[in-house]
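ugh ok so i messed up the first submission bc i forgot one of the chains. this is the corrected input, ALL of the components this time, i swear. 792 residues overall. if the numbers dont match what u have on ur side tell me asap before i send this to the collaborators (the ones from the other lab, u know who)
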Amino acid sequence: MEYHISACVQNLKPSAIREIFKYAADPAVISLSAGNPAPEAFPAKEIAEISADLLANRPIDALQYSVTEGYPALRNRLAAYMKENHNVGREQDDIIITSGAQQVMSLAAKTLCDPGDVVICEAPSFIGSLNSFRSFNVRLRGVPMENDGMDIAALEQALKEEPRARFIYTIPNFQNPSGVTMSMEKRRAVYDLAKKYGVLILEDNPYGDIRFSGEPVPCIKSLDEDGLVLYAGTFSKVISPGIRVGYAIGPKPVLQKMIVCKQGQDVHTNIWSQIVCDEFMARYDYNAHLERLRKLYREKAAYTMDLMDRYLAPEITYNRIEGGLFLWCRLPDGVDMPAFCKESVLRKVCVVPGNSFLTDENDPCQSFRINYSTPTNDQLARGIEILGNLAKEVCR
Amino acid sequence: MEYHISACVQNLKPSAIREIFKYAADPAVISLSAGNPAPEAFPAKEIAEISADLLANRPIDALQYSVTEGYPALRNRLAAYMKENHNVGREQDDIIITSGAQQVMSLAAKTLCDPGDVVICEAPSFIGSLNSFRSFNVRLRGVPMENDGMDIAALEQALKEEPRARFIYTIPNFQNPSGVTMSMEKRRAVYDLAKKYGVLILEDNPYGDIRFSGEPVPCIKSLDEDGLVLYAGTFSKVISPGIRVGYAIGPKPVLQKMIVCKQGQDVHTNIWSQIVCDEFMARYDYNAHLERLRKLYREKAAYTMDLMDRYLAPEITYNRIEGGLFLWCRLPDGVDMPAFCKESVLRKVCVVPGNSFLTDENDPCQSFRINYSTPTNDQLARGIEILGNLAKEVCR
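and heres the new structure output, hopefully the right one now
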């Protein structure tokens, strides 16, 4: 049987990272390629307590069908939390619960983009989001990243040249994969350009709560008096990614359409896990929990950057990070980056080649991505030493 | 701000049933309009036991990111179970876990249909699936239902007239909303026509396990030697709908594309709940559990049909059911069905007008749908008596 596959889907490829995971699944391989929270970060005891109570005292609430827009108590609690802590949300906004922040990407593209429309994104950017956008047959227009966020002149150029641009996709804090945080000045500039050109902003903020040094920069959404910003949040990095609970805060007319699309995608997000997230915020000291995570990641990132300074310098350079899960490493010009990554796999260390994160994978790229949160300290030490030795060999 | 909404989504409306739920939310209203499993049907104690063990002994498995195609142990167990019990699955097939069976509808339409393509469906059919298909800008072509399933001549006519038909959507067991089960003869005829015209079949079987009388009819997928059938199953009616765990069994090339689409939609289905489903099948007597559900629904359906015979006859007619959750009721010709449903809401009883389930809501329809599984016995008695009194008044 010859299957007719839709034009949107025909050319979709599984994420390159997934292909790399096949190597990473070999227990002898040290994987620095994942994006998983540290196993020590999960509040497993608290989740077990909440869940036991819930199933003992109100099991039907946790197990019966629920409403598409999400568990009302969680929506209210999150809306209040985001308003109070981040000045996110205005009268014109609403909040919905989604199956991870990934679903926000899918619902936003489905709601806002026709085939042939354009999404403007950071280059490099998170491949999971880029692939989700691609699945709606949109064209991606990349804007180069600088050390303080998007190149604003290039962004304006893109907005001028792309009348079918529907939204600007940005991860302003500890961007995946570059680790870059956008400056306040650039956040204002992006917002002003979006307003000038009548284009929305999709602000994806999975790592914002994991700032372990430096000063927090306000969300772009906190500037939003005009209904221009759709904000995507998630519990994946602060409670658990396996339970797939995220949320979107944005203009009501857009969210209303996203709700209708969500109904057709999965009816509603796992309600048991939604209640667990709500009770976790209600019963425990949420800010103390975030502080505990920050301490964990601060120590692990410092340990990793010490190793990198010792083993990777001077051949491989990187920008120090103040939060998030990723380090973006650069090989000297002239070194064949894809060949370097392939050889590192043969030496049992897995990293992600940087071109995977570009709008066009064939563009030149000298960088690769390291994740420090998933491996053990021992794996980090061995893995980074192997990468350093390889770099010294190829640069000799 | 004027928002650009995509052509696919612009004309989507929330399900009419959801609008009715607004009335049904009034505690004074008796809702016969839901589609929820009976609250007594949930194995809450077993779920609590499994979950406590899981979070105590291997919390990281339940809380960390997982793979898009689903928890391997559950995939293997379900594949074996479906093969052994239903002869479903061949060498050419694979199985993936989805966020409820609803996600199978969304992934199938996304993978198989371009805008303007056609999905052939039963008329009436499940509105949640129809709306999911509509959200991909496909055209729905309805085939009238008879007491033993689709009108086969009308199906062939549709296949002849619709060269862009991509799949035939059917709920062969205890169809929602009609309660009809397709005969074995018609299942073979549908399969043969699909083969003749080179069109796939999407077989949606949420209620098959809830047969409480009569003889089971084999799945269409059990006939599938040609890779023509995509089968959608779910734990929603047999374990819990709130945890959103479903699955698809179908030809590998189609499932591979669906996996890529799923990655962009929600990365993977809640892994905690996937493991709970797997352990439930492994640790407990699954068939004894299904028998307990059948007994529960057998008694409740019999109780309901007794009430209907007493209060609704002769004005309102219906077909007796052998399984599933719904009863399809017909008003005499000449009675204004929508007006009847509106008046019943004013009298505090909520049913679903039958035209909600048609491919064109404006088509004439004399039927409405009753659900018997969600209300209490007392609510059923009061609600059906009110409907009967109303029918007698309007038919006077």
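quick check: Chain B has a mean pLDDT of 95. that seems consistent at least. DSSP finds 14 helices and 14 strands in chain B.
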